[in-house]
Design goal:
The chain is built from one helix and nine strands. By secondary structure, it is mostly beta strands. The strands form two sheets. A six-stranded mixed beta sheet has the order 4-5-2-3-9-8. The mean pLDDT is about 90.
């Protein structure tokens, strides 16, 4: 059974804080080939497309395109604010390894 990705309350709160929904934007999470481990995440504010999976809370939205979705099955999209910086992070159960920065992974 394929579990859809989920978004934490911290991630939605950060989107609200930066005014993404008020600007009509969504957080796009995509998977592309590249990076030091084979695949890399692209995370940016974007418009949603008609074939995107849309995860939402109020007017805050996270969108994932249909090509990236199989790579993100069961993943958790979160936001972290640490001494090294603040960023959206992906906890991906499909990744067999990842690089130190957390933006690149292999399956």
């Amino acid at each position: 059974m394929n579990l859809p990705p989920t978004v934490t309350e911290r991630a939605y709160a950060r989107l609200e804080e930066i005014g993404a929904g008020a600007q009509g934007k969504a957080l796009r999470v995509a998977v592309e080939g590249g990076g030091c481990s084979g695949f890399q995440y692209e995370i940016k504010l974007d418009d949603s497309a008609s074939d995107d999976l849309v995860l939402s809370r109020g007017d805050q939205r996270v969108v994932i395109d249909e090509v990236s979705l199989p790579f993100l099955t069961g993943a958790v999209i979160d936001f972290t604010d640490e001494l090294i910086g603040a960023r959206f992070v992906i906890e991906n159960p499909n990744a067999t390894s990842s690089c130190g920065c957390g933006t690149s992974f292999s399956m």
